[in-house]
Write a structure and sequence with these properties.
The chain is α/β, with parallel strands linked by helices. Helices cover 44% and strands 18% of the residues. β1 (38-42), α2 and β2 (69-73) form a beta-alpha-beta unit.
């Protein structure tokens, strides 16, 4: 075939480009991730549920992926510092974060944040959650939720409840209950759950809605009485404590949840690999036992389910914040 010189040159370039694409495409599509160490940001100080989940996932995921996984605590701003560091990271799968109910649930509902909890992140895998439990001092003359409601209504504006801080789940959850039961309880915010427990144990406050993991030692010691738990079913560690729903209060299925997120636009193959490996780990007795020791129930989900869970959690607390006129700077 006699092809003119310009045509021959164009044809050669086309063949060359096709050859390059044919060689390069398979190389890029190979499952080479991960090829270097991974970082998981815990957007809190060491200690507590977020840090525990970060280190537990890192310890068990590292040998599966064949690379070291380092946990880096970046606290500040109620999770904002760590969240921004994650949102600004390259979407290559080497910077991940423990997103939890604070960074991706309650904070977006009550604060003006420098990040969008949905648009600036990729939801990878839900790890687990623990319910909140309504507790009262052992000395308070009530034995169940009905008696507590009656007692509060007999002392309008004279009783108080503690929280781990404004805008936290321990705050918004109690405001949800105040609204549902039409109660007049004064909110006393603390800098964390530990000082809040000091005052409820001392009788300075009369109620609190902490996470079960934090409350369990005090419940077992008989220092506080558990009246109701959030969630859709009773917790195995407190089988005699009914859910709010059992007692006639609908919509109390919010939990202290923890999951793994990354920057927006993570490549789908990386998201799929991480999700599958984490979900597989959640089925192992070792990990389930470790989480159970902290009252955490595994909550495996697909990335799409996890994204929807975050969306619905933000909507839930945003609606409550509007109803209770809660907005923080």
């Amino acid at each position: 075939m006699n092809i003119p010189q310009p045509g021959r040159r164009a044809l050669f370039l086309t063949w060359a480009a096709a050859a390059i694409v044919g060689i390069a495409w398979p190389a890029h599509s190979q499952p080479t991730y991960p090829s270097r160490p991974i970082k998981i940001i815990a957007p809190v100080q060491p200690g507590g549920g977020v840090d525990l989940v970060a280190r537990t996932v890192a310890d068990r995921l590292s040998p599966v992926l064949g690379q070291p996984i380092v946990v880096e605590n970046q606290s500040g701003g109620g999770g904002i510092v760590g969240s921004m560091a994650t949102a600004r990271a390259l979407p290559d799968g080497y910077t991940l974060m423990v997103g939890y109910v604070g960074t991706h649930g309650t904070n977006p509902a009550v604060r003006k944040l420098p990040y969008d909890a949905l648009k600036d992140f990729t939801a990878i895998a839900m790890v687990g959650g623990t319910p909140n439990v309504l507790v009262v001092p052992a000395a308070l003359p009530v034995t169940d939720l009905t008696e507590f409601v009656r007692y509060v209504k007999a002392h309008p504006g004279k009783l108080s409840y503690g929280s781990s801080g404004p805008g936290t789940l321990t705050h918004l959850g109690m405001e949800q209950f105040k609204l549902a039961a039409d109660l007049d309880l004064v909110h006393v915010p603390y800098r964390g759950i530990a000082p809040a427990f000091v005052d409820i144990l001392g009788g300075q406050t009369q109620a609190m809605l902490p996470g079960l993991a934090a409350a369990l030692p005090h419940i077992k010691a008989g220092k506080v009485r558990a009246l109701a738990v959030t969630g859709r079913k009773r917790h195995p560690l407190l089988p005699d404590v009914p859910t709010f729903e059992e007692l006639g209060y609908k919509g109390f299925d919010g939990v202290q949840w923890y999951g793994i997120v990354g920057p927006a636009n993570l490549p789908p193959p990386i998201v799929k690999r991480l999700n599958e490996e984490i979900n597989r780990l959640l089925e192992t007795p070792d990990l389930r036992e470790r989480l159970s020791s902290e009252a955490l129930e595994p909550m495996p989900m697909s990335p799409e389910q996890f994204t929807q869970y975050i969306r619905e959690d933000i909507a839930r607390w945003t609606q409550l914040a509007k109803e209770r006129h809660i907005e923080l700077e």
